[in-house]
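A protein record in our archive is deliberately plain, so that people and models can read it alike. The record that follows is passed on verbatim for readers who wish to inspect the format.
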Amino acid sequence: MNRKVEEYIKSIFTQNREVMSNPTCYIYDLEEISARINEVDKTKLSNVTLYYAMKANPNKEVLRQVLSHSGIAGVEIASIGELNIARNAGLEDDYKAIFTGPGKTPIELREAVRSKIRFINVESVVEAIRINNIAEDEGIEKVNVLLRVNIDYFLDGASEYMAGMSTKMGIDQSKFYEDYEIISSLSHINVCGFHVFAADGVLDCNILLKYTDFVFKFVKEAEKVVGKIDVVDFGGGFGIDYTKSGRHFDTKAYFDDLEKLIHKYSFETKEFILELGKFIVGSAGYYVTRIVDIKDCKGMKHIVTAGGVNHMRLPIATDRKHPVYIVEMGIAKLYEKQVEVSNETVDIEGPLCMTEDKISWDEYIERANIGDIVVLTQSGAYCYSASTLWFLSHQLPLELVIN
């Protein structure tokens, strides 16, 4: 954790009345968000278009920061609710949105068609027929779509898998040509390309590149049957390191080798879309909560914090810990024998009435006292909005930005 963030935390917990009365918050470093966008923008190829996967973090200030960058073409949404949030945060044109995800309702599809967003990623024949019927009703000649294909390739080395196995995502590659024949015959559907998002949280760019080679082979073969495909949407996949080892996805190496693959298959005229969320905002976020008690029970110590899995569900849900730091606040003890932590392995747990309420576990802590601040870094993506915020009706964590 950098010095700027630590000083900011000390400041708000001693001077900000709102934080002092609500001792849990998320902090987003807008400068770090810009750094990640710039990193991708300066290394990506000219025919690669970057969208922000706003499911990672739909905070309004975060969205404004992301949308202010010329390197961001728009947002990838997974609901019409997200489209409305993006509009309120400054999305100036609905055409800058791509709508992905399974289970889009007819109501959502109608709004997407009316809004004339750039692409709807079609997940099934049923979805394509619904879009076609809506376009007929609305008097719209063509709706541009990408077909999501569940490619027959298991991309090992990721934190989450969405293809290469039986999932609800996309059209099974084995049924692709059969389904394509139906979809392409629909009078109001214009198939512009494929969506092939397979996995998330990949730190080794070579793993993604091997998958890309497999996808390009599929595209090359498919074009012999379906004709020229203009767009390949890779989705996301760039990972961030949830340890303190300092690993980082090598964007330059990725794009250098992607360019070689594009030349290999003569795909220079195609557009390649990336929908990055976690990579852009994940390392820019910090979950911050005050220690309200420390207990010594049956030979192990437990740090009890003001917020738990109700605020920060991702670690226990994914069985993956975040880097933990303690900001010492120098609060006086309430009594002489008050328990403290000194070079010990502890569990860090919230205020909920359940033993599973842990934001970290088996964590080695050099020093911690009641009143100190626990900080979980790498908390900018899939944390606040993916938590059970209303469970037991504790105060909601504040969302703050370092601007």
